[in-house]
Design a protein that fits this description.
It comes from Carassius auratus. The chain is an all-alpha fold and about 80 residues long. It has 2 helices and no strands.
Amino acid sequence: MFRTIYKQAKKHPGLMPQFLFMFVGVSGAFLYLIRLARGPYISWDRKNNPEPWNNLAPTYQYKLVAVTTDYESLKKEGPDF
């Protein structure tokens, strides 16, 4: 597959930006998928830790980018389970 891409890129140099943007897009999607799979709301081990989201601190930043929320100054709301 990579050999074919290399041959096409040598024949048609105008395809180089397309291959570059495809590589960057696929890599970004793969890294974001890994980030989601390692998140606290995914339960890979249902027997030992069935609800891992209950073990999070109230200052845990859930979002990738939080523009207006200051997670350092949050207080815990709700009971402990």
